[in-house]
Amino acid sequence: MRHLLLGLAFAVGGAAADDVKVLTGSAMDEPMHVLIPQFERATGHRIVMDSDGAIGAMAKRIENGEPADVLIASLAQVRALEKQGKVAAGTPREIARLGVGLFVRKGAPKPDISTVEAFKAAMLAAKSIGYNDPAAGAPVSLYLVGLFERMGIAREMQQKTVAFKQRSERFAPVARGEVEIGFNQVSEIIVQPGVELVGPLPAPIQNYTVFTAGLVSAGKSPAAAKAFIDFVATPAAAEVFKAKGFE
């Protein structure tokens, strides 16, 4: 990482420092808390990150013309915006992928989800489950809706599902014991003090969000934004993502 930072500092040389606005989802909070200060120290640029929403909602904001320099969302979302000309052609870079995890209140019994059959049985036995509101474009929730349909338990799960509509409520209902089982991306679960990760979904039904960074076509700081994308796509940055629950 030290060599990378020195290389970045040399590359920007005496160039003027710029503000770079980054839109992404809250799953990126933990790795970005490490990577952004490193990038800022090395380059002098300042990152202004907005992660107050699901990545689907962030992609929609770019589609609607909100000013920004970098979007970090799912591969499909960024590619769709690239086709629309909202993300500059040829700039998307895959930076990390993240799976779906299941969590319970800290200290609560953990259901067996070691196989697809065990997972299905745990879902049918659960009194309640919760996930982020699918209407907000949350990839985990959208995937689970389809998964339960494919497993033939959509009706049963719909009757016991709570959609978390506020960011502050994504984990709190499970931590308070109001909802038995919650779902989210693994990186977000492992940093929450009131809940415990049971584990990722079984491999045959696991779903990964491939987080992809793209240069917003209408951005005001393209050179600095490209430097940031290059930085978060390095092997050294990948080690930070791995430490925060990404793959």
Descriptive overview:
This protein has helices at residues 2-12, 29-43, 55-63, 75-84, 116-125, 139-150, 154-158, 172-175, 186-189, 222-232, 235-243; strands at residues 19-23, 46-50, 70-74, 93-105, 129-132, 161-164, 181-185, 195-200, 208-215. It has 247 residues and is an alpha/beta fold. α2 (29-43) links the parallel β1 and β2 (46-50). α1 packs across α2 (29-43) and α3 (55-63) runs parallel beside α4. The longest helix has 15 residues, at 29-43.
Largest pleated sheet: 9 strands, mixed
**Bulk shape:** elongated
Oligomeric state of the chains in view:
single chain
Distance between the termini: 18 Å
**Poorly predicted tracts of residues:** 1-7, 9-14
Helical residues, percent: 40-55%
Question: What series of H and E elements makes up the topology?
Answer: HEHEHEHEHEHHEHEHEEHH
Q: Which range does the strand content fall in?
A: 15-25%
Number of helices: 11
Instruction: Supply Rg.
Output: 19 Å
